Amino acid sequence: MTTLTIMPANVTVEVAAGTNLLQAILDAGQALVTKCGGKASCGGCHIFLTGGRKGISKMTPEENAKLDTIVGIGSKSRLACQMTILGTEPVTVELLGALSG
Ligand code: FES
User: Fold this and answer.
1) How far is CA 93 from CA 34, 71, 84, in A?
2) Separation CA 1–CA 63 (nearest Å)
3) What domain range is 35 assigned to?
4) 31-74: per-residue pLDDT in tens?
5) Chain-centre distance for alpha carbon 87
6) Which of 21, 26, 42 is the pocket-test mutation for ligand 1 (most atoms within 8 Å of CB)?
7) Residue 70's domain is classified under what CATH number?
């Protein structure tokens, strides 16, 4: 288990290693648009990974390719549906609201 902090709501939840980040965010009661059902094709789950990079699975080529098509990405950009919480360190993410997608 480790902790996941979701900003800007500042919600912290306990999550098990192996949990999908998108699922963890939804389970925490936070809203994210998921039009593609987690297939790395809609971009709606674009978030910023602001803390605990080593606690998250590495970026896949599919995720990287989709991020390249999204306006407003930065060095912290990831797709929540493609991320697995490893449980090795606490993780902090920032939801982008209307900026997502
Ligand atoms: S849910 Fe569509 S890209 Fe992640």
Assistant:
1) 17, 19, 13
2) 25
3) 2-96
4) 998 899 999 999 999 999 999 999 999 999 999 999 999 998 99
5) 14
6) 42
7) 3.10.20.30
